[in-house]
Design brief:
The structure is a single chain. The longest helix has 21 residues. The protein has 11 helices and 14 strands. The strands form 4 sheets. A 6-stranded parallel β-sheet has the order 3-2-1-4-5-7, with helices on both faces. Strands 6-8-12 form a 3-stranded parallel β-sheet. Helix 1 crosses helix 7, helix 2 runs parallel beside helix 4 and helix 4 packs parallel to helix 5. The protein is α/β, with parallel strands linked by helices. 44% of the residues lie in helices and 15% in strands. Bound molecules: (3R)-3-hydroxy-L-norvaline. The site of (3R)-3-hydroxy-L-norvaline has 13 residues, from loops.
Length: 316
């Protein structure tokens, strides 16, 4: 059985659905600090859990006899920059609690890192798997520390920890909260709703992105890979595309010709974005566990707009 923390977040909400389809509804225990609206309670086991409560986390893992933990509860980069101490306590406190439960109950363990684990002194183009990591954001400090902590639990205690450095994730189910790459999700929603978008990230700012279906598939593929073949564990570079606001807008215009993009740059999130790579190299993930994204910018844009337009029609 799989325990998922942060199950109501951008990744968690879709990962729980995917895992339940793959392994069975009752094999996945969804947990989140937020309460579940009652309309979704019949989708499978759900428990309220604050990941800083180590006792409750252990009790739930024991009660459901979980053998896998997917730890997604965290504050993202922009929020973490506004509340650095809260971010440290939640991101690192929650992680070590989850790792301790995995150690005590011999669970396999997944938690995501991010391209945010790199900083200004990291090579910016085709960033290698193994390179310098001196991030200048609290989120980045959390992600690098998290990568080291997960490798430590593997080497010291034999916990089967695995992770990926996610790029910005784009989805039409649950919007992200408090990220720097959120502009790349908002642009699609506004294109459908208003035919225009004002971007808080400036023109020419390239970052790696990936469509959510590819992100979910990567998690499952990595977790099902033969551990003896893994030279790396925490965490693998993965990406599907490197884009800037104007490149997304150009693709959107192939479906919504009059779409207008303007800018109102947010200096805080712009400076975070500029400290991250322009593009990362994911050859190691391809080699060690066959990572292969299915969606490029064109295919993702077509699907995003289609799904959002369907949603709008239903809402009408
Ligand atoms: C953020 N969406 O913006 C997250 C992610 C690579 C970006 O870490 O903070």
């Amino acid at each position: 059985k799989i325990l998922v923390t942060g199950a109501l977040g951008q990744i968690g909400s879709e990962l729980v659905m995917k895992l339940r389809n793959e392994y069975g509804r009752d094999q996945v225990i969804a947990t989140d600090i937020r309460k579940l609206d009652n309309h979704v309670t019949n989708c499978g086991p759900f428990e309220t859990l604050d990941v800083t409560d180590s006792q409750k986390m252990f009790e739930l893992a024991k009660k459901y006899e979980v053998d896998t933990i997917m730890h997604l509860a965290a504050l993202l980069s922009a929020t973490a920059e506004k509340k650095p101490l809260l971010a440290w306590n939640l991101n690192m406190g929650g992680l070590i609690n989850a790792l301790e439960v995995a150690r005590e109950l011999q669970c396999q363990f997944f938690t995501p890192s991010s391209i945010g684990a790199f900083g200004p002194s990291t090579p910016k183009d085709q960033t290698p798997q193994d390179t310098i990591q001196r991030p200048i954001t609290m989120y980045g400090v959390n992600k690098v520390s998290g990568e080291l902590l997960c490798d430590y639990y593997f080497h010291k205690f034999g916990v089967d920890t695995r992770g990926v450095r996610f790029p910005g994730l784009i989805s039409y189910v649950t919007p992200p909260g408090g990220g720097t790459t959120d502009y790349a999700v908002e642009i699609y929603y506004d294109a459908v709703k208003k035919g225009q978008y004002t971007s808080f990230i400036g023109q020419g700012t390239y970052m790696d992105m990936m469509y959510m279906p590819d992100a979910l598939q990567a998690i499952i593929q990595l977790m099902e890979a033969d551990g003896s073949q893994l030279q790396h564990r925490n965490a693998f570079n993965i990406t599907a595309m490197s884009v800037a606001p104007e490149t997304i807008a150009t693709e959107i215009r192939k479906h919504i010709p009059h779409f207008k993009l303007q800018y109102d740059v947010d200096p805080v999130r712009q400076s975070i974005a500029e400290s991250w790579p322009n593009s990362i190299d994911c050859a190691v993930a391809q080699k060690e566990w066959g990572f292969q994204p299915q969606y490029d910018l064109a295919k993702m844009t077509k699907d995003m707009l289609q799904k959002l337009q369907e949603g709008t029609r239903e809402a009408v």
